[in-house]
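Hi C.,

You asked whether I'd gotten around to modeling the 302-residue construct. I have! Everything is below, sequence then structure, no commentary in between.
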Amino acid sequence: MYEELLLTILLTSVPLVLAATGELVAERSGVLNLGVEGMMLMGAVSAFGAAILSGSPIVGMIAGAFGGMMTAAIFGLFALGLATNQVATGLALTIFGTGFSGLIGAPLVGKAIDGLPSLSIPLLSDLPLIGVAFQLDALAYISILLVAFVAYFLKRTRWGLVLRATGANHDSAHALGYNVLAVRWYAVLFGGLMAGLAGAYLPLVLTPHWAEGMTAGRGWIALALVVFASWQPWRVVVGAILFGGITIMQLAGQARGWTIQPQFLSMLPYLATIIVLVSISRSGGVLHKAPAHLGRIFYPTR
């Protein structure tokens, strides 16, 4: 019983890990993209459609990543290319992704696919309780590898230092000869790719069908996770498991017939998100860790 519950929590946390890690990279470069929800939905519908047409969930996973990245490119075109307000552009991207995914996904409603299979690691998967962490699917394992890559890239590589410098002070980075807009473009596209993978995880693993708005606010939770993690990659994993556990708790409560109103249980993950953000804001301890030029428009000069 506990093993099944833990497995469900881990699976539920995977899309949060993917989406939040991608947004973390974008924010460390100084770009605030609030369109995570829209990019996830575009990734989900792209993955589901490609999986149906090809019969392969691997092709669906690639298509989901591409769909999220192309949606992020729209954000980059306006926010970086045309220097529009990043907050307004991100919100518009979410509205666009929600509506457009519903439009192109309408013919897919009612269809089902075979999702990604579980890959058990010999010996480790037989361990009591924690063995369920080694009975996941390929994309779940890839998500941990991507977190490790991002952590190494940001802390141990020259280009990771450049990316962090553009978020800390884009004028100084530009004065040193770095192309701030190019760095931010790559960061935005990577964030879109990760959000697309997060969206693809929903129809490929969690629910093998397409439904309009199936992300159900996970993109907003991923945005909160970045702040919760203080812009540190490995803390994203901890936060995602925490929020995944809260989500499963409300589902388990409804299944067991708790006397609490089901509407209250359904709002638990989002209520927890608000409480965490308010607590962090009041403490102020995390504010100095935020990229100093996060959300600021960069106007290149010679």
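If it helps when you're writing up: The mean pLDDT is 88.

Thanks,
B.
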